[in-house]
Amino acid sequence: FKLPSDSFKYLGWCDIEDHDVRGNQLHCPRVREGPSEEELFFRGEEHSLKKRKQVTDTEKWQKKLQENWENCAELNLSFQDLGDLYQAENFKRILQRLIRVEKLWLVDNSLTDLSAIRLPRCRELNVSKNHFTSFKQLPKIPQIQHLSLAENNIMTLSGISDFRHTPLESLILKRNPCEFQGRYRQLVFSSLPNLKMLDGIPKLPEDCSPPDIRFFFKMCTIL
């Protein structure tokens, strides 16, 4: 049985009439696009088509102004269920407009590569529970202070030194394959001298490798 809100399930807030809500007023908006008309037809949900109408260029421009992503300072775009290509493309379009965002959550969105995205003012970024395999796939975040990458698929620490010249203070890499690398904490802190906390644990004396640590590991002891 259809629910009273069933006809609205593929609509974003911009498509609902008689309101003046703007994008920077929403903390957890749904931003993924609904299926195309062809996709709805094959799903047997063509009844949803009657809610759609031809959109003029003026209406498209008004919708863009209503989204107002450029003025968002804090935004949660987690759990968007980006299962289709058209949804993922719209999601990236919005990320490209977040030029003033300072705190951004993108948890559990099946993201794989955001290297083309730049977030110039972002200080806190949470991209936990995604599908990143490398630090090179992260967006450009020159002002980052707190970064969470928990539960991704990052195999090695290659590329982590790219954050050496950022003000990064805390980093979470829990439940990534790289966590099982030998001397994991020492390698992270040696790559990021300004880092103060890793995986929720402050920097400890044993996390600082002695100057001759490399020489020590090259030595061979015969018993």
CATH architecture descriptor of the domain at 73-209: Alpha-Beta Horseshoe
CATH class of the domain at 73-209: Alpha Beta
H/E element string?
HHEHEEEEHEEH
Task: Name the average pLDDT.
Answer: 84
The end-to-end distance, rounded to whole angstroms, is 77 Å
E-strand count: 7
CATH superfamily of the domain at 73-209: Ribonuclease Inhibitor
Q: In order across it, which strands form the biggest sheet? A: 1-2-3-4-5-6-7
**Number of contiguous helices:** 5
**Helix share bin:** 10-25%
Instruction: Report on the biggest sheet.
Output: 7 strands, mixed
Computed structural class: alpha/beta
Protein name: Protein tilB
Keywords: Leucine-rich repeat, Repeat
Organism: Mesitornis unicolor (brown roatelo)
Quickly describe the structure.
This protein is of the alpha/beta class and 223 residues long. The chain has a domain at 73-209: Ribonuclease Inhibitor (Leucine-rich repeat, LRR (right-handed beta-alpha superhelix)), CATH 3.80.10.10.
Q: Key terms for this structure?
A:
223 residues, alpha/beta, Leucine-rich repeat, LRR (right-handed beta-alpha superhelix), 5 helices, 19% helix, 9% strand
Describe this structure in words.
It is a single chain. The chain has 223 residues and is α/β, with parallel strands linked by helices. The protein has a domain at 73-209: Alpha-Beta Horseshoe (Leucine-rich repeat, LRR (right-handed beta-alpha superhelix)), CATH 3.80.10.10. It has five helices and seven strands; from the N terminus they run H-H-E-H-E-E-E-E-H-E-E-H. The chain has helices at residues 37-43, 57-67, 85-95, 184-191, 213-218; strands at residues 74-76, 103-105, 124-126, 146-148, 170-172, 197-198, 201-202. Strands 1-2-3-4-5-6-7 form a seven-stranded mixed β-sheet, with helices on one face. Strand 6 (197-198) and strand 7 form a beta hairpin. The N and C termini lie far apart (77 Å). The model is unreliable at 211-217 (pLDDT under 50).
